[in-house]
Amino acid sequence: MKGLSGSRFCFYMGFVVGTLSLYFFLRQVWFERSMALPVLGEVPGSSVAALSWARQAGNTDNWSVKGAALINVNHPHHTGEDSRVADQLYQRVRILCWVMTGPSTLQSKARHVKATWSRHCNVVVFMSSVNDPDFPTVGLGTGEGRDQLYWKTIRAFHYALLHHGSDADWFLKADDDTFVVVDNLRWVLSNHTPEEPLYFGKRFKPFAKQGYMSGGAGYVLSKEALRRFVEGFRTKVCTHTTPVEDLALGQCLEKMGVLAMDSRDTLRRETFHPFVPEHHLTGKFSKSFWYWNYCYYPIVEGPQCCSDLAVSFHYVDAELMYTLEYWTYHLRAYGYRYRYRPPPPRGLMEQLTQTERPVVGTVGTGTTPSVITDGGVGGESVAKPLSDRRGKETLGSVPVPNNRTAVSWERQG
Amino acid sequence: MLSEGSSFMKGMALGGIFCLVLALLGSFTPGMQSSPEDQHHHHHIKAPSTDELQRLSEPQMVELTKKVRVYCVVMVQPKVLVYWATAKDTWSKHCDQAVFYSSESTKALEAVDLNEKDEWARLRKALKHAYDNAGDLRWFFVARPTTFAIIENLKYLLLVKDPNEPFYIGHTVKSGELEYVEYDSGIVLSYEALERLVKVFKDEEKCPERGRALWKLSEEKQLAVCLKYTGVFAENGEDVHGKGLFNGKSVSSLIEESMVKNPQDVVEGCCSDLAVTFGGMSPSQMQVMMFGVYRLRPYGHDFHDSLILLPPEGSDND
């Protein structure tokens, strides 16, 4: 058979070899690629560790210590968030937080305040009876105990004005078992000026004509209010009358012409709370409980007790401090549009103009597109044709960038 | 000799091209001779990253949002009525459809009465009922009322996943050779997985209704065994950082643990920002969770999430 010449044969051989070698080559490449996937799955552990390490390192860089005060260098930010509005408020509404503590509760309570909410203040000072350069705390030169509370308060405020009068516009007093959402406090204060004599907190009505603010729930004085408080003691208009610090302070401020303000949100829901969230949200206050007679504004039980933009809670133990920090700053429902969307503070730079309107997801029948229900501030649903909403900043709603899809909720059956 | 060599080379070149053409034409995957069971064998399911979502076009986003709708199967018992009532009043309102399956009927609350004392038999009946009544819902979330779920975060996890693929997701636990999803942290099943499951229910050998008398597996393990026969494997739900999204413990327990394990970074070291479930929560803790998840937030911080999910009608605790 002369048909199968040598070169012919070589050609066929070459063909077979070529096919086979490329086959194995491709297989090797594919194998390597598929190996890469499970390897990626191994990385998570280290990335979580890396994150927390970075945060640890960052923690020490967040404060610059100026005497006994911790001056906030880095306003804490969260990955993936747009905090432009919060940052603006941080610059405009400067808050000095002073925390009432003592040597016996420094490690059990104050330490957790330092690790959580106080990081959001512009300046934080821990006030104790004893000076502690490591924590650091200011030594007020008083004793400890309930009977020293007003002495500590008086001295703490004097210290704050003297040493940090120019570092802040508002001065917050909190206990070491108070949890404060400082960003929400800035929102409450944003439409007021610190040059007016004002003070905010959980308002109680007895014993003072205009009422006074609960000590445990935390209260805030404007700079002018603080000046008047200090002035009151200088001129002996105010003196140490009783150790009940919140009442005594309220009475002094009233004498000095400082106004007790309404700190409730635009739906008249309380922002400062004298108890833990569970108590306000689910507890029923018995009618004989002192609370009913003390609250300046009507008590609301159940979910409307508390504003979405809650400012404070009291009797918060260490574990709840971290839990509240988690709920406030970390845990969220992806894409959830809050019912309560109050208008932005006056004069704040408007958010970027709305770009595209949200695309409406179809619901229920799956054929006819439903109109997006624009839930107003009170949660009322007002169906608006989409063309109306274009370009209009209605109700200060959160601006919607590209590629957002809205799904309205209709329950089946 | 040279002509033979060159013919050989020509032959090789042609052979290589031939192989490539075949590979491209048939999407021929030389390495993947895996059996259908192994095809889905990775154990971690990750939530989509921001990049991934931003790459989607708007019509694609609309499609995905339409598809990701959840049917909640809540397994209740009258003897713990308060948990049932709480689930009804809290997280289950965020399901596209929430159906309560009870062991026995009770006048107090509405439920599908399965009239069944055995846990596994009850679960089977509930899943079969859910499958038959799914309508156009394609994702199923099974939980007991002691579990708190954030359905929005579940939707985020499932957003780019195809429910016509078999998915069985949650917090996975390994017991010997069996990897199963822990019941207390909620079980997620895609339509395909549920369909296969309902089919294998009919097979008394592989998936018996009453279990073999000798040793009785818990229902979560039984479920895993039956699913395994149909080629569906348990996968651990994680966020983009690898943190588990399904938790069998409550927030306070996890925070407590974190205070011991990571005292310098308690919150970061604890739980995911987009966690889907927490187990072992008391009714009043669940009411507080509604506030913590759906309402409490710091003013001025916005997340430009890729989609908007509106609050349910007629509810005031979220």
From TrEMBL, chain A:
<comment type="function">
    <text>Glycosyltransferase that generates the core 1 O-glycan Gal-beta1-3GalNAc-alpha1-Ser/Thr (T antigen), which is a precursor for many extended O-glycans in glycoproteins.</text>
</comment>
<dbReference type="InterPro" id="IPR003378">
    <property type="entry name" value="Fringe-like_glycosylTrfase"/>
</dbReference>
<keyword id="KW-0464">Manganese</keyword>
<dbReference type="Pfam" id="PF02434">
    <property type="entry name" value="Fringe"/>
</dbReference>
<dbReference type="GO" id="GO:0001525">
    <property type="term" value="P:angiogenesis"/>
</dbReference>
<keyword id="KW-1015">Disulfide bond</keyword>
<dbReference type="GO" id="GO:0016020">
    <property type="term" value="C:membrane"/>
</dbReference>
<keyword id="KW-0479">Metal-binding</keyword>
<dbReference type="InterPro" id="IPR026050">
    <property type="entry name" value="C1GALT1/C1GALT1_chp1"/>
</dbReference>
<keyword id="KW-0547">Nucleotide-binding</keyword>
<dbReference type="GO" id="GO:0000166">
    <property type="term" value="F:nucleotide binding"/>
</dbReference>
<feature type="domain" description="Fringe-like glycosyltransferase">
    <location>
        <begin position="111"/>
        <end position="262"/>
    </location>
</feature>
<comment type="subunit">
    <text>Homodimer; disulfide-linked.</text>
</comment>
<feature type="transmembrane region" description="Helical">
    <location>
        <begin position="6"/>
        <end position="26"/>
    </location>
</feature>
<keyword id="KW-0808">Transferase</keyword>
<keyword id="KW-0812">Transmembrane</keyword>
<keyword id="KW-1133">Transmembrane helix</keyword>
<keyword id="KW-0472">Membrane</keyword>
<feature type="region of interest" description="Disordered">
    <location>
        <begin position="360"/>
        <end position="413"/>
    </location>
</feature>
<dbReference type="GO" id="GO:0016263">
    <property type="term" value="F:glycoprotein-N-acetylgalactosamine 3-beta-galactosyltransferase activity"/>
</dbReference>
<comment type="similarity">
    <text>Belongs to the glycosyltransferase 31 family. Beta3-Gal-T subfamily.</text>
</comment>
<keyword id="KW-0735">Signal-anchor</keyword>
Automatic annotation (TrEMBL), chain B:
<keyword id="KW-0812">Transmembrane</keyword>
<feature type="signal peptide">
    <location>
        <begin position="1"/>
        <end position="34"/>
    </location>
</feature>
<dbReference type="GO" id="GO:0016263">
    <property type="term" value="F:glycoprotein-N-acetylgalactosamine 3-beta-galactosyltransferase activity"/>
</dbReference>
<comment type="similarity">
    <text>Belongs to the glycosyltransferase 31 family. Beta3-Gal-T subfamily.</text>
</comment>
<keyword id="KW-0732">Signal</keyword>
<dbReference type="GO" id="GO:0016020">
    <property type="term" value="C:membrane"/>
</dbReference>
<keyword id="KW-0735">Signal-anchor</keyword>
<dbReference type="InterPro" id="IPR026050">
    <property type="entry name" value="C1GALT1/C1GALT1_chp1"/>
</dbReference>
<keyword id="KW-1133">Transmembrane helix</keyword>
<dbReference type="GO" id="GO:0006493">
    <property type="term" value="P:protein O-linked glycosylation"/>
</dbReference>
<keyword id="KW-0472">Membrane</keyword>
<protein>
    <recommendedName>
        <fullName>C1GALT1-specific chaperone 1</fullName>
    </recommendedName>
</protein>
